[in-house]
Amino acid sequence: MANMGLVTEYLKSKQMSQDLAEIDSEKLNNLEYLNKEMTCALLRWQQWFENPQVDRKAVKLSVPTQTDFDEYRRTILQILSQVDISENTIQPLINQALVKAGKSLIEHGPDFQDRFVQLIAMGACEYYGFNGHYTNSIKQHGINPKFEKKNEFEPIYQILKRVGASTQLGRFKHDEKIYLTNDPRVAYLHSSISPKWFCYFNEDMLMPYLNQDYPSACQKLFNFRGNEKLTHEDCLKIREFFDKWWHRLVTPDNQKIAVVPMYRTQKDLQNRINLNQFLLKKQGFKAVLNASMSTYYERPYQEPIAPESIINIVDVPSFTSHIYNLTKAQATKGVHQHLSHLQNVFQVNALKRNQKKQIKPDDHTQN
After folding, report:
1. Nearest CA to 276 among 113, 89, 98?
2. DSSP labels for 229-283?
3. Residue 220, SS3?
4. Measuring CA to CA, which residue among 100, 86, 111 is closest to residue 48?
5. Which of 46, 164, 206, 285 has the most CB atoms around its CB within 10 Å?
6. This prediction's pTM
């Protein structure tokens, strides 16, 4: 599993917090949104320019320097600073920034575009958003639902089934598929709500889980249909189960994204390279780029992803980690008050976004 250099270090640093804070104060009300978009733009950079699956010699790709990365980083920050920027308009601008970086890192020559479209195929990735609790299992066994301890869920599942509660435990218990996406935004989303059987333990658990608000979660724990049928012993078992998993799952910086190659056999990769070169010849470079950047919400796989196929596990910086870094860096009364305000705004904005997104209890999210 590779340490994908410049991006990995930046995501772990305080520099990212400071960069996002420098965007105007109105935009800071959307710090979580900015965090997501910046993280996803960096994952795009990684897949092309810091990906060990790319044959640098074949495509004549130089190793990016800190200066190269900083130029891309500043470009993304400028994009995010635009007043009218939205998820619909941001992606073409990020694509332009990636192409610009590619033009400076790939050696020029008569076959420049041929090599560029090879790079696009070699660097294509899929992503898997998950909770950090599962990191060791994924490193050891890969992305494989068979290694989940589903026997722990059975007693609680039977209680909820008996009283007629709607639960994700039943679906998770029987689903052995793996769901990957080529869209970093979707992976980011899944990393924040994973595991869904816990995030959607009942219809009121989403916001307490996202906000890591244990008191609120406890208050809403039994907000499900059929709760009046629970016995005292049922309640104790559910509470014990919930407490155990809350402390396993709700930890600082618990969002992770596993990165895997899109084309996991040499045959599949060569077929994609051939297709890219065909599109380049018939329709031009823009057609290759558009086809490669077209995203899907998720794709199911029957077979597990072996640990050796995982390129990288990304530690996704959280909203709370940015708040912590900014508080330490600017420990003044005014800043503390502003950051406290941002935390409140974040909760409201997160609720609004999640109502609009495809975060529904029947979405196919692996964990």
Report:
1. 113
2. G--HHHHHHHHHHHHHHHHHH--TT-EEEEEEES--SHHHHHHHHHHHHHHHHHH
3. helix
4. 100
5. 46
6. 0.87
> Between the ranges 2-16, 132-146, 147-161, where is the mean pLDDT highest?
132-146
Nearest CA to 288 out of 305, 296, 276 is that of 276
Structure tokens at 176: 């052995």
d(CA 290, CA 95): 9
Helix 319-329 to helix 333-356 angle, to the nearest 10 degrees?
170
Task: Answer for the pair 29, 342: CB distance below 8 angstroms, yes or no.
Answer: yes
How many residues would you count in the chain? 367
Please give the distance of CA 132 from its chain centroid, rounded to a whole number: 12
Closest by CA to 360, choosing from 223, 163, 227, 189, is 189
Least confident of 236-245, 271-280, 289-298: 289-298
- Give 283-301 pLDDT, tens digit per residue: 999 999 999 988 899 999 9
What are the start-end ranges of the E strands in 147-231? 178-180
In the beta sheet, which residues pair with residue 300? 179
| Distances, alpha carbon 306 to alpha carbons 143, 177, 187, in Å | 7, 14, 19
Q: Which two tokens stand for residue 155?
A: 């007693």
Residues 357 and 135: their CA atoms lie apart, in Å, by 26
Q: Which two three-digit tokens encode residue 320? A: 């709370």
Contact 294, 246 (CB under 8 A): no
Nearest to 4 by CA among 91, 63, 71, 76: 63
Give the phi and the psi of residue 288 in degrees, each rounded to 5. Answer: -65, -45
Helix 232-249 and helix 154-163, axial crossing angle in degrees, nearest 10: 130
Residue type, 33: Y
CA distance 43 to 3: 13
**Domain boundaries along the sequence of the chain:** 5-125+284-302+317-356, 128-249
Tally the C-alpha atoms within 13 A of residue 239's C-alpha that lie toward its C-beta. Answer: 11
